[in-house]
Amino acid sequence: MRVFICGGGAGAQTALARKYLNESIDHTKPCLYIPLAMEPERYDGCRKWIAGELSDVNIPEIRMVRSARELEEAELMDYSMIFLGGGNTFHLLCELKKCNFLSRMKSYLEKGGVAFGGSAGAILFGKDLDACTFDDSNETHMQETKGLDLLCGISIACHYTNRTPQRQEAFRRFLLELSKGKKIAALPEETTLLLEDGVCKRIGGPLYYFENGEEKVEDRDLQVS
């Protein structure tokens, strides 16, 4: 299992993470791209974006799904990697639940699969979606918003420090309050965590860790096992 948990950056922000990604995959198999956090009318733009974003990753093809039904038909072991893109995290989770994708992806990862999640896609790998309520509205009205919990009880927040000063301070205070009841790893767009063998290797920028109403800046790998 290799899981890349990205704070929501792209291009130069995630160049080093993509280098690690390129070293992790089977170059004979295509990439499965899931843009379902976005509105359907933006999918054509998503296709152009992912082609540019992964232009330095050696894969023969990028196959993009446009619906939960298409995703349900995908044989995951045929793919070198799964790329979960950004958008509204609640909408993404709702679509994935329609085809029981979370349990299927977990099985894929346990068999040695590789996944890359950016922003909404990254948040799904944490314990729950609570931290994203600062940015995302739950128009799906889902009550059950647990993630895959691959970080052993740690939730994920994205785009940390990549905001206006006023918005950043409001987000920081929100996470401080939320962390009184949970653990949160807040990732700037330049930061990616690589989860492998119970260790989250930090790639790129810093990691901000919230627990018990306190914030710490971590400059080391995150132990999660």
From TrEMBL:
Keyword tags: Glutamine amidotransferase, Hydrolase, Protease, Serine protease
Origin superkingdom: Bacteria
GO process annotations (BP): proteolysis
Name of one Pfam family that matches: Peptidase_S51
An annotated Gene Ontology molecular function: serine-type peptidase activity
UniProt record similarity statement: Belongs to the peptidase S51 family.
Entry protein name: Type 1 glutamine amidotransferase-like domain-containing protein
